[in-house]
Design brief:
By secondary structure, the chain is α+β, with helices and mostly antiparallel strands. The protein contains four helices and seven strands; from the N terminus they run βββαβββαααβ. The radius of gyration is 20 Å and the shape is elongated.
Length: 192
């Protein structure tokens, strides 16, 4: 059986460029270079694209970003419309970086943590029904209907979001606020 980690860091590598910088090879498949200059916009280089002369661009930082598709697993605790007690659910989805430069600019270092809030917000008003009358299958179906068109944003593409596990027991961390295996604070770390 293949197991997947519940989250991932899309930034594979980040470093300050030496002065003067040496030549940079083209990024490998499934990766992209993000070049951060001293001033001005970042530059993204994908596999097969020409790599600019690092000395001419005044670049000071370099990031290698993973652009392959990954599976994410998020544990959420929801109250939902009409629910008298919190409901926990596990959401699984596929994730792929579409704009590596924006991911670096947004400091996304834990992909599950980055999407925890938007997913929770999306599911916040799903009608789940009162405690005793709530059917797990009905709650699951309502949550999956709300997830059907959840595709992320222009920087990160999400697909196949769904939940199979719905229950009322508390999550392991006690508050249900964190992403599975992740620390929400890591999504906000500054890349210097």
């Amino acid at each position: 059986m293949v197991t997947h980690p519940p989250t991932y860091d899309p930034v594979v590598e980040g470093r300050t460029l030496p002065r003067p910088p040496g030549p940079l090879p083209t990024p490998p498949p499934g990766r992209a270079w993000v070049l951060v200059p001293d001033a001005g916009p970042t530059r993204t280089v994908r596999p097969g694209e020409p790599v600019p002369d690092l000395r001419a661009g005044g670049y000071r930082r370099l990031f290698l970003v993973d652009t392959t598709e990954h599976r994410l697993v998020l544990d959420l605790r929801l109250t939902g419309r009409g629910a008298s007690a919190p409901l926990r659910c596990r959401v699984e989805l596929m994730c792929r970086v579409t704009d590596p430069g924006a991911v670096v600019a947004r400091n996304i270092r834990d992909m599950s943590a980055a999407w925890h809030g938007p997913l929770r917000e999306r599911l916040r008003n799903v009608p789940l029904g009162p405690g005793a009358d709530r059917s797990r299958a009905a709650a699951r179906d309502a949550l999956n209907a709300a997830l059907r068109d959840f595709t992320g944003d222009t920087d990160v593409r999400l697909s196949g979001a769904r939940t199979d596990r719905v229950g009322e027991r508390p999550l392991p961390d006690g508050d249900g606020g964190g992403a599975a295996g992740g620390d929400r604070g890591t999504a906000r770390r500054r890349l210097q």
